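Chain and backbone:
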Amino acid sequence: MTAETPAPDRRLAQKQRTREQILAAAAALIEGDLPGRFSVDELVEQADVSRRTIFNHFESLDEILIHVGVERLFVFSDALETSLANAAEPLDRSAVLAIFADVLDTDVLPEVIAYFMSTMGMKPSYTAHSHQLFHGAFTHMSEEIVEQIVSASDVLDRFDADLIIATVIAGMETVAKHWLNAEPLLHTDGASITPESRIRFHALFARLAATWRAGEPPHLHEH
């Protein structure tokens, strides 16, 4: 007969289920008909838990938003790990940054950035608070990515990998800032991105990727 699961294990499993329940409720509120900043009371109702339960698991709403955002970044982490493992050339700093440029060059990236910027209000905008969320989510994943880089490279140590991550985060924050501040009217609501705005985003990202590859940045034509 199988021994009964010890009580501490059951409590740990229940704690994890409750945590996931809260995060799922937060994601549902963000992706609902009125995307934007939600209140603790709205999260309590959506998750069907008490305020005390929420703050037993998370220190603040911002921490919840960061964790939900990190889930959206996992697609890039998985793709990065695969690209690092399959790289044919020696993985020095330039090679790793070139891989970042390839992995991040997708139509998913502007959607992820718009998510972070729209959690603070009805329309995406680059504010100090949205910057904090964006930075927090990338930083939250940085340790995992550092491990991926160090494991895949024979010439880069943790210090080198940390510098690469800092370069990537700073670059993405700069793209987000210029994209959202230059033409905010292109964002019609908190969830959609117009074709014109998407074109501008990819033009800005191309300039960033060119610097990562140590090439000449292309000229940005206004649209």
Q: What stands out?
A: The chain has a mean pLDDT of 80. Residues 23 and 68 are 6 Å apart (CA to CA).
